[in-house]
Amino acid sequence: MKLVDDLVNFFKGTEADREIIRHDIRDENIKRIFYLSLIGAPASFLHVIFFAISLNSATPFEYKWRISILTIHLVLSTSLIIIGSVIYYSFIRERRNIKLAQICVIIVTSMLMVGGAFISAIDQQVTIAINPFIVSSIVISIVLLIKPLHAVVYYTISYVIFFILMKNAQPNPDILISNQVNGITFTGIGLCMSFIFWRLHLTRYLQHKLIESQKNELVENYNKLKFYSEELKESNTTKDKLISVIAHDLRSPLASLINVTKLLSDDFEIMSNEEIKDIMISLNKETELTYETLNNLLLWSKTQRKKLEPVPESTNLYDLTENTSLTVRSLYKQKAITFTNNIDRNIYTLADTSMILSVIKNLVINSIKFSYKGGNISVNSSFSDNNVIISIQDNGVGIKPEVLEKLFKPDSEYTTNGTQNERGTGLGLQICKEFIELNGGQIWAKSEFGKGSTFFFSLPINQ
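RE: above sequence
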């Protein structure tokens, strides 16, 4: 049963074989016919030249034979030139017409099937050899990759044509039977060679497909490993940065809170109301800044783990800025800062409200942090194309040019204390950048050291 199955698969082909036959072997045969035309056309034309030499001095009998061969090779060389040109323009240069190229393959195959037997029959006028038939039988097995079942049909038809033509062309019975036997022999050799070359090339294509598949799988696995490696590296960086912030930026304000509460508990009875009020103001300030630090840490860690997705809705930017003003009022009142909201009351953007509120809050707190006592902070609006541009401007310490360049870069860990030694994590601006970009906008800054800074962000207008 296994032998029968193997034979069926050999002649019929598996599904994998059929996929290769439909594409790879089809294209290979077209290319081979093209190269055969490049070699065959000059070779046939050389036959025309050789048979034309001394044609006038030939005997009538030889003249007739030469004319026949000359005519066949002239037609053959012309046909191969035409076929080569058609394949070049329809397939080699641009794959514009594969069907036309396939028709050219069929034409050349038919020419070889008939041509060898026909020329051998004509040659019987002057020789007993059947070289053209032998050559065509071998050439077809080498040049074309023919499915086994089609090869059997092809070689059978080729031999039948040879047998009939030879019977009519060779009057000598002994020579006739010798040529017919030789024809069977070389037909069998050509068929066997066709089978061998077919299986060799089919196996090679299957191996190539397997290698390509394994290569693609390796590349895909490598890309996955690279992605996971980068993700792990980023995760470790995030973890290290988180630990660093907790260890340094949160420990100090918590230590201050502990000292203040201890001072209150130990000396409360001897403190004046004014002293207690100052301590409570300081305590409130430290608590608010610590809360903002914790909030920024939470938001930043979520953005690093890709856990935040914006939920766009119609958002009034004036109202968000007013809410921010109320939230941070105690911070700018402590520095006697004048806060002005100049945003047009009718501006709406399509964005995640909580994210944009966090952005405005972070930028305003940042301006308060670097503003001097009695300074000014204003929030303004303008338009550019279909975007609204919000700017938070202060007249504080400003930013040095070398710091401004790396302000929003992901790997930047720049942070500095404010005008009253306010601490920060350096994460606020990173959060602002990620939130604005998630909502389809951009963020940037302009500053002149010693004269203040302006932070801008753009968002799409909700028409």
